[in-house]
Design goal:
The protein has helices at 9-26, 62-73, 75-94, 96-109, 113-130, 139-149, 154-171, 179-186, 194-221, 247-269, 274-291, 296-308, 311-329, 333-341, 349-366, 370-388, 392-405, 414-423, 427-454, and strands at residues 30-31, 34-37, 41-44, 50-51. It is mainly α. The protein has one domain (9-47, 64-454). The strands form 2 sheets. The chain has a two-stranded antiparallel ribbon with strand order 1-4. Strand 2 and strand 3 form a beta hairpin. It is globular, with a radius of gyration of 23 Å. The model has no long low-confidence stretch (mean pLDDT 82).
């Protein structure tokens, strides 16, 4: 009997596009009324859902035409990925990364836990405060090299990144792109309730560190237990003879760190996003050429090679976004939101609070955008919270957990698909690693919701 082979991630995503298309024929089309708020953003009006009297079924060829549109809608992320790949190609040619890893490995080798704990804390803080997500893509190659050099595997590296970033988004102590928008829509004072969210971030980090460290320890003791043991590792991540660290390497890394600092400030103070970040990485590539005294033509070749390595990543990002477009075109997202939200008003305060968490987790599959989900679901969830006697702050907390934590599970999240593809991790292998973590987080999140109801969290 032939052994079943899991299809390529591209095949899985196309299968999800077909499934989403089938759902548009099964579920009734409907929509909420909306009103315009906050510089043109649309917000749902609670209690206004109606099915469409004259539904408009999607033609069969939509499953093909939606894919180019999927690329077009996330072209800013795709081009950002190419620029990151190009910049990293130039950086790699300077030898600074290899030299730095040669310095760090002996240090981390004596205390491997520093890699996991420190990395997860760093990514959690970045996501919890200024909503970093796409900005983590440049860290993927460095994390891979460090993890593999320490005797771990690629899933450990990406587990440090993604679990940290999901915990940061889920706790969202001050995230302006999720919690502040949700609080504004729900009519809750901005930045209120941050102390409870900070406590939860510490608790969630402990769960995340334990999950990643447990897996990483098994892999280090027995590499055959790695979920990607049968997938060849990029030889560039297995180098043993790292170059001697020089002054030029130090200047290159100093320029990189300074640039990352400018990016963090630009995101928080100047409202930068992917376009500005792409320009910064392009400028950083030029700076590498000057500092490391690289030949321009050689650097250009390295830039093109680095960008080309991320072509598969770009393709999968476009396919992943196409799933969402099918659901939007089929006008069934509001149907799903309305159908799941209605029963919550009949199961009591604690049950409703936990139900809100799982409702938001489900919604994140269909609406992976954090701010987009806030504008669609919070106008519905806030009145339900009033009906069942739950503080609106609790409804916001459910939104944070559902949106933030499931970002690292749903294949409609273009950033997740990009990270996994850069790391060479098939989605099914990632699912085997991350689903137990998600179960732990759903349990912890449910307990946090019950406690929030009990203490009158507001």
């Amino acid at each position: 009997m032939a052994q079943f082979k899991v299809p390529h991630t591209l095949v899985l995503l196309f299968g999800m596009i077909l499934l989403a298309y089938a759902m548009t024929w099964i579920l009734p089309q409907g929509q909420f009324e909306t009103l315009e708020v906050d510089h043109g953003r649309e917000q749902v009006v609670p209690g206004t859902y109606e099915t469409l009297e004259t539904p408009e079924p999607l033609p069969w060829h939509t499953v093909f035409t939606v894919i180019p549109r999927g690329f077009q809608k996330v072209e800013y992320i795709i081009f950002f990925v190419f620029l990151i790949g190009g910049a990293f190609g130039v950086l790699r040619s300077t030898g600074a990364i290899d030299a730095m890893i040669g310095v760090l490995l002996p240090i981390l080798g004596r205390a491997s836990w520093m890699f996991i704990v420190g990395g997860m804390l760093l990514f959690a803080i970045g996501s919890s405060t200024i909503g970093m997500a796409e900005e983590y893509l440049p860290f993927v190659p460095v994390l891979l090299a460090l993890a593999i050099g320490l005797g771990f595997d690629s899933i450990t590296a990406i587990g440090v990144l993604c679990c940290g970033y999901a915990i940061g988004y889920g706790s969202a102590v001050f995230n302006p792109f999720t919690v502040l928008i949700a609080q504004a829509v729900a009519g809750v004072p901005l930045n209120s309730g941050w102390s409870y969210r900070l406590v939860l971030m510490v608790v969630f980090l402990a769960i995340g560190v334990h999950h990643v460290w447990s897996y990483a320890s098994k892999v280090k003791k027995d590499p055959s237990r790695s979920l990607v043991a049968d997938i060849p590792v990029d030889p560039s991540f297995q180098k043993q003879d790292h170059p001697r660290f020089t002054m030029t390497h130090g200047l290159v890394l100093a320029a990189t760190i300074l640039t990352l600092g400018i990016i963090v400030y630009g995101l928080s103070a100047w409202g930068w996003y992917v376009q500005e970040l792409g320009a910064v990485f392009l400028g950083l590539s030029v700076l590498y050429i000057v500092v490391a005294r690289l030949a321009p033509s050689d650097a250009a070749s390295e830039f093109c090679h680095g960008a080309a390595e991320l072509t598969t990543t770009a393709l999968l990002i476009g396919f992943a976004n196409s799933i969402l477009l099918i659901l939007q075109d089929g006008k069934i997202i509001d149907t799903i939101v309305n159908g799941v939200a209605q029963p919550l008003s009949h199961i009591g305060t604690a049950g409703a609070a936990v139900g809100m968490l799982f409702f938001q987790s489900l919604c994140n599959f269909f609406i992976p955008s954090g701010s987009g989900q806030a504008y669609v679901t919070m106008p519905v969830m806030a009145p339900i919270a009033d009906l069942v006697g739950v503080q609106r702050q609790v409804a916001v907390l459910a939104y944070q957990f559902g949106d933030g934590v499931t970002n690292i599970l749903v294949p409609t999240n273009a950033v997740l698909i990009g990270i996994l593809t850069m790391a060479g991790i098939p989605y099914d292998r990632w699912l085997r690693f991350i689903f137990p973590f998600m179960v732990k987080m759903w349990i912890a999140g449910s307990l946090a919701m019950v406690v929030a109801v009990w203490i009158g969290y507001s």
